[in-house]
Specification:
It comes from Oidiodendron maius (strain Zn). This protein has 510 residues and is mainly α. Helix content is 68%, strand content 2%.
Length: 510
């Protein structure tokens, strides 16, 4: 089927009320574009004339890139939440208490967050490919260390070292999505990222619990060593650099841009070479994640991601105390299997969340005289908010009243798996629509905040009953989602307040 590619009508200086994120979805002749037609598709941002611009890559090349990144994310995060079903075995193996075993998770979570203050600047300076290769090698070493650890101190050190490498899965794929996909495509691919990330979190405990019971817990980390080695070679052979050094230009400067591209040749193409101003870029990228937390839209996105993800973490921390105890008496393998419900919910979230948010935004764009607002995505959060509420209520009541495990797991855990993919997918896609040049930094501050709270949970969740622990996270999650109402109504005004911020110019120098 032939497809006619059209670009958004260039913004005129006298066009009112067009803060960053707002796009006029019309072609160059100011004709309306039917975004649901197979004959036309508006491309935002407008790609360059360079064939090596990742926006111009063929669809199969983009798909291979995404698959490699998704596998990288899934395999590198695999060991992170694997501790929960193996807790009784670690208690006996290391002769320690539950608080110390909780730290096995906590130190990994906190390292995953704060390492991105280094990894995102490194990725912006040296490229996505170099970052993934180095971190994949670190993950291999970390998994070997975990498999060989003989004491609590050694195991904690191995968890930290492993997380240093695995931290790249928190941010790099989102940068890659912003590098190679257009505005109308990002929602569904953001869903692929969160699905890969949380699928690794879901599957890790399933595999770890059963391997620990049948073959010993060290066998799980040897398996992780194998799949992380596969990661390294898949990145080495199949992952091209996606970081593209482009200069933003006005629509009427096409000829100048083309002549400049001819003169500079490969310097304007995709490259892993460091920037000339690497030091200033490094300092800027370290400071930016903290600075942008003052933007209400980004602060809200951070809150949604943290609350949604740590609602899942609450289930991870409470599942062993609940299901290994009376009246359930689950073995470590059976505790691991309850995480299959998260997988089912996550797959539903993957299939529906991104496409739904894109579809809703397109429909509302047509109704809004072809003016696309990022806030249009937020309507898609409503059904997933309802799912989250129902799931949490069932789990809280089920924990407290010791309901049959089928109700808690088959319904409650499935709902939590669905919401942990859907809510962050929509919130992050919205934030990236508003502040595309700092997509990596957005994920950094989301990760840091999410993982800092997650680290603290290793200390206080054990002091509450499982039902009360989930109740705290349910209240946080509901509050974060409900704050989306004022964000929807005042989001454009908030974007207008920040439209002169330097963050919108970072793509010029990144």
């Amino acid at each position: 089927m032939n497809t006619t590619v059209v670009y958004p009508h260039p913004r005129m200086a006298n066009e009112p009320d067009m803060p960053p994120g707002t796009e006029l979805m019309r072609d160059a002749t100011n004709n309306r574009i039917d975004e649901f037609s197979d004959l036309h598709q508006v491309l935002v941002p407008k790609p360059s004339d360079d064939l090596e611009d990742p926006l111009n890559w063929s669809f199969p090349r983009k798909i291979v890139t995404v698959i490699v990144q998704a596998l990288y994310v899934l395999f590198s995060i695999l060991p992170t939440l694997s501790i929960a079903p193996v807790t009784p075995i670690f208690l006996a193996e290391f002769h320690t208490d539950e608080g110390t075993v909780s730290l096995f998770l906590g130190v990994a979570v906190i390292t995953l967050g704060y390492m991105n203050f280094i990894l995102v600047p490194f990725s912006n300076i040296f490229g996505r490919r170099a970052t993934c290769l180095i971190t994949a090698a670190i993950v291999i070493g970390g998994n070997i260390w975990l498999a060989l650890a003989r004491g609590v101190g050694s195991f904690l050190g191995a968890r930290v070292f492993n997380a240093i490498g695995a931290a790249a899965n928190e941010t790099v794929m989102v940068q890659v999505i912003a590098d190679i996909f257009f505005l109308h495509e990002r929602g569904q691919w953001m869903g692929v990222y969160f699905a890969a990330y949380f699928l690794g979190c879901f599957v890790g405990p399933i595999i770890a619990g059963n391997m620990a019971q049948a073959l010993g817990w060290r066998s799980f980390f040897w398996l992780c060593t194998g799949v992380s080695s596969l990661n390294f070679f898949s990145v080495l052979f199949f992952f091209p650099e996606t970081k593209y050094h482009r200069k933003m230009s006005s629509p009427d400067s096409t000829e100048d841009q083309n002549s400049s591209a001819d003169a500079k040749g490969q310097d304007l193409g995709v490259t892993s070479a460091p920037y000339p101003n690497a030091v200033s870029s490094l300092l800027r990228d370290i400071v930016t994640p903290v600075y942008i937390l003052g933007f209400p839209i980004i602060a809200w996105t951070v809150f949604v991601v943290e609350a949604s993800a740590n609602t899942l973490l609450a289930m991870n921390l409470t599942q062993s105390p609940v299901f290994a105890a009376p009246p359930y008496h689950f073995t470590p393998g059976e505790v691991g299997f309850v995480n299959f419900a998260f997988v089912v919910g996550g797959m539903i979230g993957l299939i529906t969340a991104g496409p739904l948010s894109d579809w809703v935004a397109k429909r509302l764009t047509v109704r809004n005289n072809d003016l696309r607002e990022p806030e249009m995505r937020l309507w898609a959060m409503v059904p997933y908010f309802a799912v989250m509420v129902l799931g949490c209520i069932v789990i809280i009541l089920g924990y407290h009243n010791q309901w049959p495990w089928q109700a808690i797991v088959a319904f409650g855990y499935t709902c939590i798996g669905l919401q942990v993919i859907a809510l962050p997918t929509i919130a992050v896609a919205y934030a990236v629509d508003c502040y595309k040049p700092i997509s990596g930094e957005i994920l950094v501050i989301c990760t840091v905040f999410k993982n800092t709270v997650g680290f603290s949970m290793a200390y206080w969740v054990q002091d509450l009953t499982p039902a009360n622990a989930v109740l705290v996270l349910f209240a946080t999650n509901a509050g974060a989602c409900l704050l989306g109402i004022p964000i929807y109504f005042f989001g454009k005004r908030l974007r207008r307040f920040s439209q002169n911020s330097a963050v919108h110019l970072m793509e010029n120098v990144m």
